[in-house]
Write a structure and sequence with these properties.
Strand content: under 5%
Number of domains: 1
Order of helices and strands: HHHH
Structural class: mainly alpha
Shape: elongated
Largest sheet: none
Distance between the termini: 37 Å
Number of helices: 4
Helix content: 55-70%
Length: 88
């Protein structure tokens, strides 16, 4: 299942999908994949020792993007009003 179908199937969403959220989740997972591939390509270079910092940045970027996409996927039922409402 794709992101939109998964979010739309959530009982709290009931088919009312926030397309901006879906697009953000998809972009974040795409970014994580690109950063992981870039780090892997750097590891195949002859001068890998000179690319250590680049590899670290790529791996950090991949982790942040994947974690953010995962959290956004879990928080899909939240609305702005429920997030911003004062505590009771």
């Amino acid at each position: 299942m794709q992101t939109q179908e998964m979010i739309g199937a959530h009982p709290d969403v009931r088919g009312s999908v926030n397309q901006a959220l879906v697009d953000a989740i998809d972009a974040l997972y795409s970014c994580a994949q690109a950063c992981t591939s870039c780090a892997d390509a750097c590891l195949a270079e002859q001068m890998v020792d000179r690319l250590r910092q680049c590899i670290r940045f790529n791996l950090d970027c991949a982790d942040v993007c994947a974690a953010t996409a995962t959290i956004a996927s879990r928080a899909m039922a939240l609305t702005t009003s429920s997030v911003c409402a004062p505590p009771r």
